[in-house]
Specification:
Alpha-Beta Plaits; 3 helices; 6 strands
């Protein structure tokens, strides 16, 4: 399995961010070819030491890193990536990695 972890930094207007994310961005993300699972954090995103600089975390799962890269390169993947500018002005960090069961 491969994962795309998206870390959204604290927006100036959380209600506006949440509305766009829920009503526009999630539907776009679900259209990315190869997405097997799409999870988002609920409530505050914390660290063991307390609050984090992140408002929301999304985790998308794909069969492989190749499937992930291929999905992001499609028109639907590019549409989801292009939408980030519409609501994630505070910044976003993306992590891509393969996983294994241990």
């Amino acid at each position: 399995m491969a994962k795309l972890v998206v870390l959204y930094k604290q927006p100036a207007d959380k209600a506006k961010f949440d509305a766009h994310y829920t009503n526009v961005h999630i539907p776009l993300g679900k259209k990315i070819p190869g997405v097997r699972k799409f999870e988002v954090s609920q409530g505050p995103v914390n660290t063991p030491a307390g609050p984090s600089p992140y408002h929301l975390v999304a985790v998308l799962e794909f069969d492989s890193a190749d499937a992930l890269v291929k999905g992001l390169g499609t028109p639907d993947g590019k549409a989801a990536a292009g939408d980030l500018a519409n609501f994630a002005q505070a910044g976003v960090d993306l992590l891509i990695f393969d996983t294994r069961t241990v």
